[in-house]
Write a structure and sequence with these properties.
Blueprint lengths: L1 H20 L11 H4 L1 H23 L4 H33 L7 H25 L5 H39 L7 H25 L17
Helix pairs in contact: 1-3, 1-7, 3-4, 3-6, 3-7, 4-5, 5-6, 6-7
């Protein structure tokens, strides 16, 4: 329950930040900042929150294995779509204000995350869902599937924190009070994001509950 509570807290915080402090968000507006505000909302909720919920769905939902697999697949797909839309919003914002693309470590790692995330999902769809590989192939690939999933998710959490730091630094250089309420909100949002990611990875590393469709405490794929 803690992980779901943290997911709600982080989601509320990013909306409060974007709406109450940054003026909201819009795909088309004369206020170009509203376009950028889409970026942190969609990437955080998509790649970190929904991505984390997708990862733990195998262990947090008391459902049949095939149902959990479908939920796992769909949540990751939604996460990728939201992540792509969030990245497109950032690119469009840079185009409108004539700022170069991909000049920070946040953007470099962010592109790597969405590319690896997409490739992982596509490969896993083929091997585990349709047309589905043989039982031996699925078993042999599973540890690597899990390892890459953990790696990409950890990168996504780290990239989000880098993004908060980068944005807050830009705002403070523009005159934002370093000890003001917005600065505290962004910093706490980063802390809760790390806490959420930590709990997700803890759940992944724990034993799965016994299932009638699998051997007890089997290794669950991410």
């Amino acid at each position: 329950f803690a992980v779901h509570a943290l997911a709600i807290i982080v989601s509320v915080m990013v909306f409060v930040w974007s709406i109450n402090y940054r003026g909201g968000f819009a795909w088309e507006s004369t206020n170009k900042a509203l376009l950028f505000n889409i970026h942190p909302v969609l990437t955080l909720i998509g790649l970190v929150i929904l991505g984390g919920e997708a990862i733990i769905s195998y262990k947090s939902l008391p459902l049949e294995q095939r149902v959990k697999k479908l939920i796992h697949l769909v949540l990751h797909a939604i996460a990728i779509i939201l992540g792509i839309c969030g990245i497109v919003a950032a690119f469009r914002h840079h185009n409108k204000i004539h700022v170069p693309h991909l000049y920070t470590i946040h953007s470099w790692i962010g592109i790597g995350v969405i590319v690896l995330y997409g490739l992982q999902w596509l490969f896993s769809f083929i091997v585990y869902f349709y047309p589905r590989g043989s039982s031996s192939l699925r078993s042999n690939i599973l540890p690597w599937h899990v390892l890459l999933g953990i790696f990409v998710y950890a990168l996504a959490v780290g990239t989000s924190v880098l993004g908060f730091l980068e944005k807050l630094t830009f705002l403070e250089k523009s005159g934002l009070d370093k000890l003001g309420s917005e600065a505290f909100l962004v910093n706490f949002m980063a802390i809760f994001t790390v806490l959420f990611g930590t709990v997700v990875l803890h759940i992944v590393s724990s034993k799965s509950p016994p299932s009638s469709n699998e051997d007890s405490y089997s290794y669950s794929p991410i």
